[in-house]
UniProtKB/TrEMBL annotation:
Stored PROSITE patterns: HD_GYP
InterPro entries linked: HD/PDEase_dom, HD_GYP_dom, PilZ_domain, Split_barrel_FMN-bd, T3SS_YcgR_PilZN
Tagged with keyword Endoplasmic reticulum: no
Name the record gives this protein: HD domain-containing phosphohydrolase
Species of the source: Marinospirillum alkalitolerans
Disordered, as annotated region: 260-312
Pfam families per UniProt: HD_5 (PF13487), PilZ (PF07238), PilZN (PF07317)
Length: 617
């Protein structure tokens, strides 16, 4: 938001801003809508407080739609257009508006919804550092403190031997803020843990398997004799922007979870995906022959539901397959490697039948799942480029293509064993940190070499995607003559995907700029593969933002046979600086929009190609 739309709040003692422009109000309300953030409602002359959520925001007509009010007797107040105000917390910020009243009421799916005109202003107060989100006691969020990574040892063939980490303490998360957390650990630890004890490597593990790696320093130690639990008040160590955003996201989700639990409507309100436990594998029949853990994991993975005809379902299955493997590595469990093979089969079939739909899904990314979505994207592009390579006799060999996709899905598994403080560091790595980071390729090779049926091409991709033609890569500093053709291709694809997709601490590069940088890396990357990549993906690839002569901006949805934009979704006009109603235009049949004048950077306009997944109308 630009400075022109903000004024300092006049309330004494606050550090907030008053957002008055329609665009600014639209953006704030859209944030609340996108994250399903609860609104705390206060009606004029009514003592009680109520809860609702925003269902839709209409910029052009200046109104938003609100869900039913809880408790339900608040419906009468809304129906009578009694004035109200709301408070809400999003990403650790407080948003408030007053002078509101419903201007319309309708019934949707058996529940009332309300039409409310935009407020004249929204008070926006940054107070992340003060808000502590409690964790309900039925919610099991594990915290591990003080990981010790044993030194890497090597076998007789000079391959690294992976040893699992050892944790000093394990407990449960009791509250969370932007600056720290409260952890309960069994037993009396007052003599063992003093104030200011630091743990550089810790894990917070959520019920769905998502893990946040960070550092903590203990600021307070207290013991509850009745519960026989030690409470640790902890402060985060050296948060980078990526971790900061992850924690802010969890704080918001915990706030929503508490609003859900206390609203009286918990039975029908979905639990956050973050707090939804993974479904356990099907229980064995007593008459069934006992299986070992690896067989059970594979059997459980084969029973996962997936709609093989739905690209979104297949893509989600593949992302989950990679995430499950990483989680199993971190938890020292046997790998359900068959799930990755099944994902490879489904992705290959989809690539051959619905290529552009699948490519689109790999281009729409979420920052908190970067590692898993990056792996799926690399897998799909490896096979896609191989299909395009007419000089390769294996380009139509299904076994070869299946192995390629499997290689891409698993090429970064070793990163799951690298500390998050190194993986997520935004600045330059120290020499020691770089050495640890560069081990991920060797770890991946070791992991895959232990899995029965792993093809040689997967081992090549795992290590050679980080090598460079001039020997400046890692882990073995191989030069061009020592690299396989598929290793050189994997390096180009890995760099391209990493460049063009954002992290929590930075936006991705526009595709045109990424192409330019790749072409300038002739000493490190194979130029012929870079040129092939550009030809196959197109100058304006699927998912990229383009500008038309009239100032309209749109995301490319599909390409024609010549790999030029065919279907574009309009989202914004940079001349008027206003969002546009979402509209898909087919360039061949829409003369007013036939001429694309330039690529554009979505970050410049705070746009996201997530809108490509939204339905129209």
């Amino acid at each position: 938001m630009g400075n022109a739309e903000m004024t300092q709040s006049q309330q004494p003692g606050t550090q907030g801003q008053v957002i008055k422009s329609r665009e600014g109000i639209y953006r704030l309300l859209s944030r609340l809508k996108a994250q399903h953030t609860p609104l705390k409602l206060a009606f004029d002359s009514v003592a009680e407080h109520y809860t609702s959520m925003i269902l839709a925001v209409n910029y052009q007509e200046g109104y938003f739609l609100m869900d039913e009010v809880m408790p339900s007797w608040g419906d009468e107040l809304m129906a009578k257009a009694v004035g109200f105000s709301f408070d809400s917390f999003h990403d650790g910020c407080k948003m408030s508006a007053e002078g509101l009243r419903a201007s319309g009421r309708a019934i949707k799916d058996g529940s009332p919804i309300y039409k409310v005109a935009f407020p004249d202003a929204i008070d926006f107060l940054q107070r992340r550092q003060f808000y502590r989100a409690p964790v309900r006691y039925s919610l099991n969020i594990q915290v591990r403190l003080g990981v010790v990574h044993p030194p890497v040892e090597y076998d007789e063939f000079n391959n690294p031997i992976i040893k699992p980490p050892v944790w000093a303490y394990e407990g449960l998360l009791r509250d969370l803020s932007a600056q720290g957390c409260q952890v309960e650990v069994p037993g009396d630890l007052r003599e063992q843990l003093a104030n200011h004890t630091e743990f550089a490597d810790c894990e917070v593990i959520f019920p769905n398997g998502h893990v946040i790696h960070l550092g903590l320093v203990v600021r307070h130690v207290g013991y509850d004799e009745n519960k026989e639990l030690t409470g640790l008040g902890c402060q985060f160590l050296q948060l980078n922007p990526r971790l900061d955003r992850q924690i802010s996201f969890v704080v918001t989700e915990l706030q929503r979870d508490n609003a859900r639990a206390t609203s009286g409507h918990a039975a029908t309100t979905p639990v956050s995906e973050l707090f939804t436990p993974l479904e356990p594998s099907a229980k064995k029949s007593k008459k069934e022959k006992p299986k070992d853990e690896a067989e059970e994991a594979a059997a459980g993975a084969e029973q996962d539901e997936v709609d093989e005809r739905d690209p979104s379902s297949v893509h989600r299955f593949a992302v989950n397959a990679v995430q499950q493997l990483v989680n199993q590595l971190r938890a020292k469990q046997p790998l359900a490697i068959q799930q990755a093979w099944r994902a490879a089969d489904l992705l290959l079939e989809l690539l051959e039948q619905q290529r552009q739909e699948l490519i689109l899904l790999t281009r729409v990314r979420s920052t908190h799942q970067y590692l898993y979505e990056h792996s799926v994207s690399v897998a799909v592009m490896l096979a896609d480029q191989a299909l395009f390579d007419v000089n390769n006799p294996k380009s139509r060999d299904k076994t070869y293509l299946r192995n390629l996709i499997f290689a891409g899905l698993c090429h970064d598994l070793g990163k799951g064993l690298i500390p998050e403080r190194i993986i997520g560091k935004t600045g330059n790595l120290t020499e020691q940190e770089a050495k640890v980071m560069h081990k991920h390729s060797l770890l991946t090779r070791e992991i895959l070499s232990r899995q029965p049926g792993t093809p040689e091409i997967a081992l090549q991709v795992a290590t050679q995607n980080c090598e460079r033609l001039d020997g400046s890569g890692h882990p073995e500093h191989l030069k061009s003559l020592s690299l396989s053709p598929i290793g050189k291709l994997a390096a180009v694809i890995d760099v391209f995907d990493a460049m063009t997709n954002g992290r929590s601490y930075r936006a991705g590069l526009p595709h045109a700029l990424a192409y330019k940088r790749l072409l300038g890396m002739g000493q490190q990357l194979e130029a012929s593969w870079v040129q092939q990549l550009i030809k196959r993906q197109g100058i304006f690839p699927i998912g990229s933002l383009v500008a038309f002569e009239q100032g309209h901006l749109g995301f490319v949805k599909t390409l024609d046979a010549a790999n030029k934009p065919q279907l574009v979704r309009l989202v914004y006009n940079k001349l008027t600086q206003q969002p546009l109603p979402l509209e898909d235009i087919e360039l061949g049949s829409a003369p007013a929009y036939e001429r694309i004048v330039a690529p554009e950077d979505p970050a410049k306009y705070q746009l996201s190609n997530q809108v490509l997944l939204d339905s129209l109308g």
